């Protein structure tokens, strides 16, 4: 089985993936930001590096999905392949940070890749307001994230809501993270686990 955790920068995808992997004995696949060769350059000069970064993400996530299906294990994936094409690349294009030529090239490649793969069995979307995202980004203290602008986060949030509002590729669980803390509150985590069990085992 393939479970994907989706959400904006700072929504808590990695933390939740980690906790659920431990709880259900799933194999976690994380987004490896530390070894990403483009991320620092991208945040310093988005226009120059946007296409390179998006192609890198698309390639690594496609490889991940192939590995997931080959493994025969139940895998929880930190961020899905769809977010790159539905949220991040369109946002860069609309901001004038990715040319129309590059965006079309990217989108054609994405469409080809998703025609060759199965969507996740369950998509978990972490919904968070801008103050929550900013608070969590500041808490983890990644240097390259210091330059992320509020308007950039808001545009991403708007695109996330639009995408998730029409998501129909499989089962979907929406978790609102503004009023819960699954990191330190076991009851909050337990409620999420109950909802996942209900989705997976078709109790509702």
Keywords:
single chain; 204 residues; alpha/beta; Rossmann fold; 8 helices
Assign the structural class, choosing from mainly alpha, mainly beta, alpha/beta, alpha+beta, or little secondary structure. Answer: alpha/beta
Spatial separation of the terminal alpha carbons: 19 Å
Tell me the number of strands. 5
Task: Summarize the biggest pleated sheet.
Answer: 5 strands, parallel
Low-confidence stretches: none
Describe the structure.
The protein is of the alpha/beta class and 204 residues long. The chain has a single domain, classed as P-loop containing nucleotide triphosphate hydrolases (Rossmann fold, 3-Layer(aba) Sandwich). The protein has eight helices and five strands. It has helices spanning 13-24, 39-44, 46-71, 81-94, 100-114, 130-140, 150-165, 186-200, and strands at 2-7, 27-29, 75-78, 122-127, 171-176.
């Amino acid at each position: 089985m393939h479970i994907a955790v989706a959400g904006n920068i700072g929504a808590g995808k990695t933390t939740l993936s980690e906790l659920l992997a431990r709880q259900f004995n799933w194999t976690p696949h994380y987004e490896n930001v530390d070894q990403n060769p483009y991320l620092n350059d991208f945040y310093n000069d988005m226009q120059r590096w946007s296409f390179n970064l998006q192609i890198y993400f698309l390639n690594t996530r496609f490889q991940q999905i192939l590995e997931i299906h080959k493994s025969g294990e139940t895998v929880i994936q930190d961020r899905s392949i769809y977010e790159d094409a539905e949220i991040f690349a369109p946002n860069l294009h609309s901001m004038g940070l990715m040319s129309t030529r590059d965006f079309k090239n990217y989108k054609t490649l994405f469409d080809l890749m998703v025609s060759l793969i199965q969507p996740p069995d369950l998509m978990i979307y972490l919904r968070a307001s801008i103050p929550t995202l900013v608070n969590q980004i500041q808490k983890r203290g990644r240097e390259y994230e210091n330059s992320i602008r509020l308007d950039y986060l808001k545009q991403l949030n708007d695109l996330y809501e639009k995408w998730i509002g029409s998501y129909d590729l499989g089962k979907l669980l929406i978790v609102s993270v503004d009023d819960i803390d699954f990191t330190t509150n076991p009851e909050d985590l337990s409620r999420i686990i109950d909802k996942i069990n209900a989705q997976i085992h078709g109790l509702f």
